[in-house]
Amino acid sequence: MNAVNTSLESACDLRFGQVGMACVRVRQADAAAICEELERRVQAAPQLFLRTAVVLDLSHLSDLPDDGMVDAMLEAVRTAGMLPVGLAYGTKETEALAERMHLPLIAKFRSAYERADGSVTAAAPAPTAASAAAAPAPQPAAADTLGLRSQYHDGQVRSGQQIYARERDLVVNGVVANAAEVIADGSIHVYGTLRGRALAGAQGDEDARIFCSDFRAELVSIAGQYRVFEQLPADIAGKAVQCRLDGDKLLIEPL
């Protein structure tokens, strides 16, 4: 009996880790339009999007589509050249839909959390001037609080390698090679050439920024807003730059 158990245990191993994955936010329940839009993006940057794993986010639709429409959306994603692997976390209805479609729920992309009574906790509204004035001034956090320390990487980030700084900034002292990926929940600082991909604000922080001393990136992204480069504009190629959001627009500015 023990011999059988040993054989079963050695047959495979199970590990959890950070996996780079795109999110398709569906804003119209129109499979043909989704396919057309994704095909355009794949054709513009096939090295980034062809056969990439994506999560389907239905939370921006006013009503949850029926099973037939979701199946058509999944097929539209496949036809465009991407590979849908699951649904973004949403409500109980989304969970039931995922079970019927035999798809996993990917919690990484959830923007709201469901209470036990089935209601959803949304993001808090921005404070008014009166409430901000009445609120006590925030106290500075301790220097060693999680999220304030930066994560450092010394040396090259090799092609195919991914580095992820969870709940903090990422500082790279070296080159980020082509097809390498650096990701941070906070900002990203690259003291060297950025040739690969940099994704800041990975959990939705729109105040995150990307700083680079030699900009030659394939892709940069902040809080899901991204820009892909087949050929870099002359005013930023090889320059020291910062990337930041201005509303929904991702700006890249020489330093």
The span between the termini is: 67 Å
User: If you consult CATH, what is the topology of the largest domain?
Assistant: Pectate Lyase C-like
Q: SSE order, as H and E?
A: HEHHEHEHEEEHEEEEEEEEEEE
**Taking all residues together, what is the mean pLDDT?**
80
- Based on secondary structure, the structural category is alpha/beta
Overall, the morphology is: globular
CATH class of the largest domain equals: Mainly Beta
- Low-confidence parts: 109-146
Oligomer class:
single chain
Proportion in helices: 10-25%
In the CATH hierarchy, the architecture of the largest domain is 3 Solenoid
Give me the side-by-side strand order of the main sheet. Answer: 7-9-11-13-16-17
Strand content: 25-35%
Number of structural units classed as domains: 2
Number of helices: 6
Q: For the report, how would you describe the main beta sheet?
A: 6 strands, mixed
Function: Cell division inhibitor that blocks the formation of polar Z ring septums. Rapidly oscillates between the poles of the cell to destabilize FtsZ filaments that have formed before they mature into polar Z rings. Prevents FtsZ polymerization.
Family: Belongs to the MinC family.
Domain Septum formation inhibitor MinC N-terminal: 15-84
Protein name: Probable septum site-determining protein MinC
Task: Write a structural description.
This protein is α/β, with parallel strands linked by helices and 255 residues long. It folds into two domains: 19-121, Alpha-Beta Plaits, CATH 3.30.70.260; 151-254, Pectate Lyase C-like. The protein has helices at residues 2-10, 31-44, 46-49, 67-80, 92-100, 129-134, and strands spanning 22-25, 53-57, 83-88, 105-106, 113-114, 120-121, 151-154, 162-165, 170-173, 181-184, 188-194, 197-200, 210-215, 219-222, 225-228, 241-246, 249-254. The strands form four sheets. The protein has a six-stranded mixed sheet, with no helix packed on it. Strands 8-10-12-14-15 form a five-stranded mixed sheet, with no helix packed on it. It has a four-stranded parallel sheet with strand order 1-2-3-4. The chain is globular, with a radius of gyration of 21 Å. Residues 109-146 have low confidence and may be disordered.
